[in-house]
Every structure is written in structure tokens, then in C-alpha cells.
Amino acid sequence: MFSRIYWLCIKTFRNHNEKKTLRHPQAKESLRSEFIEALDQLQQKHPIVYLDESGFKSHDYRPYGYFPKGTLCYGSFNWQLKNQTNAIGALYQGQLFAVGLFDCKINSNVFHFWVEHFLIPELPRNSIIVLDNATFHKRADTQELLEHHGHQILWLRLIALI
């Protein structure tokens, strides 16, 4: 009996197992085709460069573990660990470049430093730089610095207006 129920559950799981698709509540499906069309037009005349940031920890506390029943499960923790490492990088033609690692939070000062010292020296001429709407991307002198070197910023939110 157990075997029959087990195989029925496995069969049902196989037939209904689908990968989840996440949708942001503010995403506008109608703008996606306009975004792709605008990128196709821009890509014919300019290099398209994508920027983003990510943070990671060298150690993370995991509150659960497996151990024989009735025995305490002990773990270790680095009590001195205070910050995470943040990375900023750019992609051009599928290649990662201008990667900067920072042992601090990313803010407008860190981002401006990265743009000036890491990104601009390696950018292809007359690039279109695709940025999300993080507040530290919007610092006026950072935008002016990129424009001064002949690059344009393409904001993800405003893509439909181009």
C-alpha cells in the first residue's frame, strides 16, 4: 500500500513541477517590448554596457542543522564579522569588466569613485550605460562625468520614453 501511494505522489509531482516565475509588483509588461526595441536600435550605433552591484558575506549564520535526536547541535560563528563585501561590475558583450570590490556599503561616493577609476578607463567609446534606479546612481556629478566622457545613461524606468 505504501509503495502505491509513494509512486502516485512521485507521478503527480513530476507532472506538476514547474519553475516559479517571479514578477515585481511595479513591473509593466507593456514596456518590455518597447525596451527591447529601443535597445535594438541603440545597439546598432552604440555599445551597450550594463552595470550592477551585489553583496555577499564570507560567513553566514545558519540557525538549523542536522544532528542525532536528543543531542545538541553546535555551530560556529565569526563574531568579528561586521560587514559584507560588495562588488560593482559592468557587462559588455557578455564579458564582465571593471570589477571593484568594496568592504563597505555602496553609496553615491563609492559608486562615483568606481565610475571614475574603474569604469571610465575601460568603457568603449560612446557607450550607452544601462542603470537601474538605485538612488546612488543618480548623483548629478557622476552623470556629468559619464556625459563628459561621451557616454549616455539609459534608465530602466524611463526606457519607454526614448
TrEMBL record:
Domain Tc1-like transposase DDE per the UniProt entry, residue ranges: 47-156
InterPro entries: RNaseH_sf, Tc1-like_DDE_dom
Xref: PANTHER family: TRANSPOSASE
Name the record gives this protein: Transposase
